[in-house]
Structure formats: structure tokens, C-alpha cells
Amino acid sequence: MPRAQIKDEKKYQKLRDKGESKEKAARIANAQAGQGSSKVGRKGGKSPSYDDWTKEDLLKRAREIGIEGRSSMNKSQLVKALRDH
């Protein structure tokens, strides 16, 4: 039985079957129904490569995600550790 707030019931059901929450499945199904699936998948910002970050910024990010031994790492080691995490 179709729900009024769900614009693409088939997509919603596929997402629910994959284990997505009701809210997330509804958000995705409605966004794709309104904009098309190719546009919805391309949303989001661009982040610069870790190679372009300063060592200070890399250390801050490593601290945020809990990388051990970060204080003794050089810039290239920090970049590798963040990419591997």
C-alpha cells in the first residue's frame, strides 16, 4: 500500500530490504524521485587531498579519530595513517 509521504515506493522498499532506517530510506527515495538518481549520488562537497593539508591540520584530524603514535609521525606518515584508517 503506497504511503503519501513516499514518492518512490519501490526504491523505498529496496532500501528498507537492505537494512536502511525508515527515515533514511524515505529521504533517499524522495530525493531520487524529485531529482533523479544520478544527481542525488553526486551531492556533497570536495575535500582537498591530505597531501595538501598542513601537518598541524593532519595532527588535529588524527587526534579526532584516535590514531595512536601521531605525535611522533612526520607528515607523510600522518597522511598514510589517515588514509589507512
Structure description:
- The protein is mostly helical and about 80 residues long.
- The protein has two domains: about 10-40; about 50-85, no CATH class.
- It is built from five helices and no strands.
- It has helices at about 10-15, 20-35, 35-40, 55-65, 75-85.
- Helix 1 (about 10-15) packs antiparallel against helix 2 (about 20-35) and helix 4 (about 55-65) runs parallel beside helix 5 (about 75-85).
- It is elongated, with a radius of gyration of 20 Å.
- InterPro entries: DUF7218.
- It comes from Actinomadura rudentiformis.
- This is Rho termination factor.
- Pfam families: DUF7218.
Which terms would index this structure?
elongated, single chain, mainly alpha, 85 residues, 5 helices
Fraction in beta strands: under 5%
How does the overall form come out from the CA principal axes?
elongated
Taking the sheet with the most strands, its summary is:
none
Radius of gyration: 20 Å
Unreliable runs, pLDDT <50, ≥5 residues?
A: none
